[in-house]
């Protein structure tokens, strides 16, 4: 259920709020920060209720951040002339920043859980998971900072593009990290965890296929399959 909610919220933000997000991004950033603060407060005091049961997993499991990151990544594999690319490309930077803000809730929750046990945490699979989380956080920080115009303008175009290529390993590592978090519950038969892994796998798998297809199309000079499908649908 939370994935449906996250999906609806993400696309509502992208589609309905595209123009105001492009023109006035700061209020959206402040609203995202407020939601993260609400999540942190609610978790600390043990808030309960139906609304909270829908909201809390979106933040704690990084579902909303992951879907926003996915939208950002999928924009890059859409055909150059596609209507979706035209709609989404102008707000790609803003969506990246929003995704990073929402991811902070996930980082704070698990950081608070594991930092007190840091002296005994670095063993086996837990050590790998914590190391991976630290790497993802470092990559996210770099990508987030360089998404701000003031930082981008202070870099050369070549340097900025090299940094932005880190988005590919970053996105893949997010998937690995989430899968590792969910796998124990999935193996224990938790239906929500199983569905979550399937959804994440389908999204990342679809992106990988479209990314390869676009790369091959760019080399050959032919339109990518995604572009052909969009143009056919529009017709």
Automatic annotation (TrEMBL):
Signal peptide range:
none
Query: What is the predominant subcellular site recorded for this chain?
Result: membrane
Q: Where are the transmembrane segments?
A: 58-79, 95-115, 127-145, 166-186, 192-210
Which Pfam family, just one, is annotated for this protein?
A: Ferric_reduct
Query: What is the membrane topology noted in the UniProt record heading this document?
Result: Multi-pass membrane protein
Keywords for the protein's UniProt record, in alphabetical order: Membrane, Transmembrane, Transmembrane helix
UniProt-annotated location(s): Membrane
Q: Which residues form the Ferric oxidoreductase domain?
A: 64-174
GO CC annotation: membrane
Q: What is this protein called?
A: Ferric oxidoreductase domain-containing protein
Q: Which organism is it from?
A: Adlercreutzia mucosicola
Q: What is the lineage of its organism?
A: Bacteria, Bacillati, Actinomycetota, Coriobacteriia, Eggerthellales
């Amino acid at each position: 259920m939370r994935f449906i909610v996250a999906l609806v919220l993400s696309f509502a933000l992208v589609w309905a709020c595209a123009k105001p997000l492009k023109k006035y991004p700061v209020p959206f950033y402040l609203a995202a920060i407020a939601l993260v603060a609400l999540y942190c407060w609610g978790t600390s005091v043990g808030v309960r209720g139906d609304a909270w049961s829908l909201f809390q997993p979106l933040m704690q499991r990084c579902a909303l951040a992951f879907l926003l990151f996915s939208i950002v990544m999928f924009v890059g594999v859409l055909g150059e002339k596609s209507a979706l690319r035209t709609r989404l490309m102008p707000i790609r930077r803003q969506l990246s920043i929003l995704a990073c803000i929402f991811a902070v809730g996930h980082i704070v929750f698990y950081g608070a859980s594991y930092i007190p046990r840091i002296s005994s945490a670095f063993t086996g699979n837990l050590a790998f998971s914590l190391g991976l989380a630290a790497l993802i956080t470092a990559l996210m920080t770099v990508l987030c900072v360089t998404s701000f115009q003031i930082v981008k303008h202070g870099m050369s175009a070549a340097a900025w593009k090299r940094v932005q290529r880190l988005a590919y390993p970053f996105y893949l590592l997010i998937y690995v990290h989430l899968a590792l978090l969910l796998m124990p519950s999935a193996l224990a038969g938790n239906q929500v965890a199983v569905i979550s892994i399937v959804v994440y796998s389908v999204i990342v798998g679809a992106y990988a296929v479209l990314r390869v297809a676009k790369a091959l199309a760019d080399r050959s000079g032919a339109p990518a399959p995604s572009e052909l499908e969009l143009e056919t649908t529009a017709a």
